[in-house]
């Protein structure tokens, strides 16, 4: 059995510190905790996006380990190259990880990620999902949910905000028959930390997709980041799952969902949604859960 | 308190002063974040049950648990309020910064 990582036994050492992310930034918490669990012998590759923008502001450098900014499309390729370099140099007991945003993963970096998984490269790839291109001022990405107001999916008389739904990145990755994939949420941190710990001993590629609220882009008070990310799971719009040994597993199967309306009404990006829009979100949710409950292990 | 400290930095004067290769060493923060705060989290040590929830959820990692009571690194706390919101016994109060600056 893997030792359970909790707030109490988690190291006090910070490997990602002094960064300039907005107060209450969910992504920065996801990176902070991942780095604590991975440790000092970690090589981080980050494409353009908030997490590189807030930590590599010359002459500032928030990582305590080696870290590099990659071309936007290349997180998977650069992390794979770092892993290959470490192997060639005989440098052992290290981790090569990528931390990319939702845009950097599901749209721009999809090919490089797909290549890395296909080759089974020894990397851990994190998708920090804040559901839009935040670093450039909130544009819609392939992981922006239906009904989200962004600068490129405005809401008004003719449009409910984004008219597309979230790409199913977790299952896209799993379809490569990846060694290990998981979804997570900064609202369920013990679950997330367990998944990071698990990824450390996987042979081959790991992918962890974590939902991470962005107070600036979501139009939410900074203090509710964690509870909102929990509510996303509790209302069924997000889910906690794993894929390993060719099998899907649902880690959390709520008996009853909390109301989607309660979740969306807290957020500026969804303020405009009508009852019909919310019903649409619920219908989509129910369809997805029907399949997951039917086909996945529990 | 055992948290990374701010580093001093001398502005390069000529182009030859700029680093070659990696742009800067790691763990190299040259400015603090304290000025971002409107509210300052203050821990009531009497009420604190040392559950470490605040330490876990702080996006900036500024809550220190290396001694027998929690300390906050106010150089880097942004005053986001996540810690206070997540503290069950309500041991953290968000206090207006102005009250500390007179
Ligand atoms: C090839 C390329 N295209 C566009 C950009 C501009 N750009 C920089 S960051 C960013 C947004 C990143 O969004 P996401 O990947 O979701 O990360 P987030 O900032 O939300 O964490 C964009 C579009 C770029 N740097 N390089
Ligand atoms: S814009 Fe959002 S993701 Fe980017 S640093 Fe701010 S809170 Fe974090
Ligand atoms: S969350 Fe509250 S009770 Fe728990 S350690 Fe922090 S201050 Fe103490
Ligand atoms: S206010 Fe925010 S940054 Fe400051 S200690 Fe609390 S959670 Fe951390
Ligand atoms: Mg994003």
Total individual domains of chain B: 1
Rg value of chain A: 18 Å
Number of beta strands of chain B? 4
CATH third-tier fold name of chain B: Alpha-Beta Plaits
Percent of sequence in beta strands of chain B = 5-15%
User: What structural class do helix, strand and pairing data of chain A support?
Assistant: alpha/beta
User: What is the mean pLDDT of chain A?
Assistant: 97
Q: What is the CATH C-level name of chain A?
A: Alpha Beta
Helix content of chain B: under 10%
* Poorly predicted regions of chain A: none
| Main sheet overview of chain B | 2 strands, antiparallel
Strands of the largest sheet of chain A, in order across it?
A: 2-1-3-4-6-5-7-8
State the major sheet of chain A.
8 strands, mixed
Strand content of chain A: 5-15%
Q: What structural class is derived from the secondary structure elements of chain B?
A: mainly beta
Number of strands of chain A: 8
Q: In the CATH classification, which architecture of chain A applies? A: 3-Layer(aba) Sandwich
Please give a quick description of this structure:
By secondary structure, chain A is of the alpha/beta class.
Structure characteristics:
heterodimer, A: about 300 residues, alpha/beta, Rossmann fold, eight-stranded mixed beta sheet, 11 helices, 8 strands, globular, B: about 100 residues, mainly beta, Alpha-Beta Plaits, two-stranded antiparallel sheet, 2 helices, about 10% helix, binds thiamine diphosphate, binds iron/sulfur cluster, binds magnesium ion
């Amino acid at each position: 059995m893997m030792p359970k990582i909790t707030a109490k036994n988690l190291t006090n050492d910070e490997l990602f510190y002094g960064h300039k992310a907005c107060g209450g930034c969910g992504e920065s918490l996801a990176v902070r905790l991942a780095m604590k669990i991975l440790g000092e012998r970690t090589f981080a590759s980050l494409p353009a996006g908030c997490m590189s923008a807030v930590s590599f502001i010359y002459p500032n450098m928030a990582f305590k380990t080696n870290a590099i900014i990659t071309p936007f499309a290349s997180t998977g390729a650069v992390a794979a190259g770092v892993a290959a370099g470490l192997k060639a140099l005989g440098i052992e007991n290290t981790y090569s990880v990528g931390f990319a945003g939702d845009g950097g993963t599901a749209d721009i970096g999809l090919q490089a990620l797909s290549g890395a998984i296909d080759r089974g490269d020894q990397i851990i790839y994190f998708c920090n999902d804040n559901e839009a291109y935040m670093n450039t001022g909130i544009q819609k990405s392939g992981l922006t949910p239906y009904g989200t107001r962004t600068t490129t999916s405005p809401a008004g008389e003719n449009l409910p905000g984004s008219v597309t739904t979230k790409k199913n990145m977790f299952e896209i990755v799993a379809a490569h028959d990846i060694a290990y994939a998981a979804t997570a949420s900064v609202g369920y941190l013990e679950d997330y930390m367990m998944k990071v710990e698990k990824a450390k001993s996987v042979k081959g590629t790991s992918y962890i997709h974590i939902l991470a609220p962005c107070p600036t882009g979501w139009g939410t008070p900074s203090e509710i980041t964690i509870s909102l990310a929990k509510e996303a799971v509790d209302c069924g719009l997000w889910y906690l799952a794993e894929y390993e040994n060719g099998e899907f597993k649902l880690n959390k199967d709520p008996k009853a969902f909390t109301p989607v309306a309660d979740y969306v009404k807290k957020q500026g990006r969804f303020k405009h949604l009508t009852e019909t829009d919310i019903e649409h979100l619920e219908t989509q949710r129910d369809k997805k859960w029907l399949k997951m409950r039917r086909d996945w292990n529990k | 308190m055992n948290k990374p400290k701010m580093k001093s930095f001398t502005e390069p004067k000529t182009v030859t002063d700029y680093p070659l290769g990696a742009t800067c060493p790691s763990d190299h923060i040259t400015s603090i974040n304290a000025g971002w705060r409107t509210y300052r989290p203050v821990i009531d040590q009497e009420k604190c049950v040392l559950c470490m929830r605040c330490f876990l959820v702080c996006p900036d990692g500024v809550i220190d648990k290396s001694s027998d009571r929690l300390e906050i690194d106010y150089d880097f706390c942004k005053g986001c309020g996540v810690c206070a919101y997540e503290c069950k016994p309500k041991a953290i109060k968000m206090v207006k910064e102005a009250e500390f600056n007179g």
